[in-house]
Specification:
Layout: E1 8-9, E2 21-22, E3 25-35, H1 41-52, H2 62-88, H3 97-117, E4 121-130, H4 134-143, E5 146-153, H5 160-175, E6 182-185, H6 193-208, E7 216-222, H7 226-230, H8 235-250, E8 257-262, H9 275-284, E9 290-294, H10 303-319, E10 324-328, H11 335-348
Parallel strand pairs: 3-4, 3-5, 5-6, 7-8, 7-9, 9-10
Antiparallel strand pairs: 1-2
């Protein structure tokens, strides 16, 4: 990434045997969820084991959860998850779309930061699960001379199972550094004016390309157990606010847009309504035969959008009588999205760089 090669020199007035120290700079470390290295059984099992063993994601007592995970779930789920990843895999580059898009985002943000701050900053990315690990990237930044690191989870909304666990892993990496850099994490940007504007523009572009306007826009967020909301996680409220701000920016009525939650896992109740059920209900009961779906909680298209929304949820809608289904892609590496993330970064770099 940007200026990753350190320029080292011995400090002035230091003895001749003093080790060289890299030129000081500020690191900007972008973080996303992660991706398996491939879609074969063992790659999927390693990835799912790390993901589903995270107590921020599944908080059941390990003595109860781990036998079920290791003996039942991880004997079957790698096959079904592997098929889902295979259907969207970037075969040309040998990686998942999330990896491809995150690399593209990082490259463009690095260019933006270089234009603004020159060689004083270094931009890179890591994954919470899988590779490249947070630990390896923190180590590389410290080796390159980063005495300050801004950690940027690529989640507009805060949830313990997303931003929270990404921050946890960042702090664990810092614990292993003999000379810890100063560190900051960003606040969620779910209501940032540039973020809302970028979402609205993506909806307007998508609608302008359609011959017939959709009857309703379904704003689908990744779900979580309802219990987490009751324990104080702000995610649900932040999602609702994003939808409201998007509706207001578009100048729409309440009937033009609705909020749902997807990716339900396990037996307990999750945030409702469930996207896969709600799109069927809209078609069958409300006679909404043309819908569009957008997923603002994802900063990059991934298996939950390209496979779950554009295949499973679409199928549920069509089987219930729906006629026209439009998926509006994530903001990905669109210029407006790079502008959003760059603005958030600059707001959090104040006092660190000129």
């Amino acid at each position: 990434m940007l200026d990753a090669q350190p320029i080292s020199e011995r400090p002035e007035h230091a003895p001749a045997d003093h080790p060289a120290i890299p030129k000081q700079k500020t690191g900007i470390l972008l973080a996303n969820l992660g991706t398996p290295d491939n879609y074969d059984y063992w790659s999927m099992r390693r990835y799912l084991n790390e993901f589903l063993s995270d107590r921020r994601v599944i908080d059941y007592a390990p003595w109860k959860w781990q036998p079920l995970l290791q003996l039942v779930i991880l004997t079957k789920r790698p096959f079904s998850s592997g098929e889902a990843y295979k259907s969207i895999w970037n075969e040309d580059k040998g990686e998942s779309p999330l990896m491809t898009i995150t690399k593209d985002q990082t490259g463009k943000i690095a260019e933006e930061m270089r234009a603004r701050h020159g060689d004083d900053v270094m931009v890179d990315y890591c994954m919470r699960y899988g590779n490249p690990s947070t630990k390896s990237k923190v180590r590389a930044m410290v080796d390159a001379g980063c005495r300050r690191i801004l950690f940027v989870p690529l989640y507009p909304h805060y949830a313990g199972a997303t931003s929270g666990t990404a921050n946890d892993q960042f702090f664990r990496a810092l614990m292993e550094e003999p000379w810890q850099p100063a560190a900051r994490t960003i606040e969620p940007y779910f209501e940032h004016p540039l973020y809302i504007e970028a979402l609205a523009e993506s909806v307007e572009r998508a609608y302008a390309q359609l011959e017939t306007r959709p009857d309703i826009l379904v704003v689908s967020y990744h779900g979580m157990p309802k219990r987490y909301l009751m324990q104080g996680d702000p995610y649900h409220c932040q999602c609702q606010k994003t939808t409201r701000l998007l509706k207001e920016r578009l100048g729409w009525q309440d009937t033009d847009i609705t909020t749902t939650f997807q990716s339900v896992f396990g037996p307990e109740e999750w945030l409702r309504p469930y996207t896969v059920e709600e799109v069927a209900r809209l078609a069958k009961e409300d006679n909404k035969k043309r819908i569009a779906v957008i997923a603002p909680a994802f900063s990059a298209d991934c298996v939950e959008t390209l496979e779950e929304i554009n295949e499973e949820i679409k199928e549920s809608f069509e089987e219930a009588g729906g006629e026209s289904f439009t998926y509006i892609p994530c903001l990905n590496d669109e210029p407006a999205h790079i502008k959003v993330i760059s603005a958030v970064i600059d707001e959090n770099l104040k006092g660190w760089v000129g």
